[in-house]
Write a sequence for this structure.
């Protein structure tokens, strides 16, 4: 693989690979968009639709289970960052049986509200492509 | 390096090949009952009310409850608890390892928390200086944050070393 005979890493001149790396801010760094306000976690069942399934992050007392909510949000966001353009049905298939399609769509809508994810088109459907936006990890700020 | 390597190497970009035909789609009531069962299992013991849980599930048609239990069992979402010391009725089930494993992804909660923390620290440091030295021991989350910042043209990375000029580089749009 391009190495000469007798090549040994221990005989490398170490000062040549020991150097400092800097991260430098550009003027646009200070113009980054502000993270949108934290929307409430979707619950599912409500008075308008009494047989809408209760979401996996909601317990019997209608309280949000923070650990589960955080895990579901990170799982969905991880899928979107790893596979740009993936649609909700594919995400729910990959995260099955952890989350259902309805739960996946709820989480993506929440992430859109948090401005961490964008979708193609005006309406989010089960076949809408999803992409992570700049600073997607900041969606979890405050959770 | 483990998480980062998995995430950026193992996942191919998706190329949708068309809509799949929907198979084994449950009815709305069965889906609702399944969600009640899962909520029942996941509720913290300290705040669990067995009577309320029983009332809620008892309102539903019996065949829908049977079907929901069958589906959850056969899909290995819930499993019967091994120990025989159940405290209250209806709580002798638990979410399976398969369920918990399905929610594990290469970028986990820890990585996002690391990215967020690095972003906050960087913001504070950039308020005082224009360039920040990067540690060679940066964690995966911090690197994900740097990738995002560089990709969006907010920062650039440079190695202005005088001792080894041949290594000087600059990553990111000018």
């Amino acid at each position: 693989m391009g190495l000469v005979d007798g090549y040994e890493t221990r005989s490398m001149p170490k000062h040549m690979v020991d150097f400092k790396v800097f991260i430098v801010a550009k003027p646009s760094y200070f113009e980054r968009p502000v993270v949108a306000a934290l929307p409430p976690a979707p619950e599912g069942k409500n008075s308008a639709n009494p047989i809408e399934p209760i979401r996996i992050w909601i317990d019997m007392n209608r309280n949000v289970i923070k650990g589960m909510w955080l895990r579901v949000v990170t799982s969905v966001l991880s899928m979107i960052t790893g596979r740009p353009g993936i649609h909700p049905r594919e995400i729910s298939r990959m995260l099955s049986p952890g989350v259902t399609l309805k739960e996946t769509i709820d989480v993506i809508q929440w992430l859109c509200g948090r401005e961490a994810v964008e979708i193609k088109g005006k309406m989010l459907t089960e076949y809408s492509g999803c992409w992570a936006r700049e600073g997607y990890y900041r969606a979890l700020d405050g959770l | 390096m483990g998480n980062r390597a998995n995430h950026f190497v193992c996942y191919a970009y998706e190329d949708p090949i068309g809509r799949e035909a929907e198979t084994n789609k449950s009815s709305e009531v069965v889906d609702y009952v399944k969600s009640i069962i899962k909520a029942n299992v996941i509720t913290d013991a300290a705040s669990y009310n067995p009577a309320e849980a029983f009332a809620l599930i008892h309102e539903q048609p019996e065949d829908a409850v049977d079907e929901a239990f069958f589906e959850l069992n056969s899909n290995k979402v819930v499993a019967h608890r091994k120990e025989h010391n159940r405290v209250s009725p209806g709580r002798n089930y638990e979410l399976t390892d398969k369920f918990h494993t399905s929610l594990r992804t290469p970028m986990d909660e820890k990585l996002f928390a690391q990215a967020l923390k690095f972003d906050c620290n960087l913001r504070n440091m950039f308020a005082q200086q224009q360039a920040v030295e990067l540690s060679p021991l940066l964690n995966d989350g911090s690197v994900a944050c740097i990738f995002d910042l560089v990709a969006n043209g907010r920062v650039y990375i440079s190695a202005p070393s005088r001792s080894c000029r041949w290594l000087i580089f600059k990553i990111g749009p000018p």
Remarks:
- Chain B has a mean pLDDT of 81.
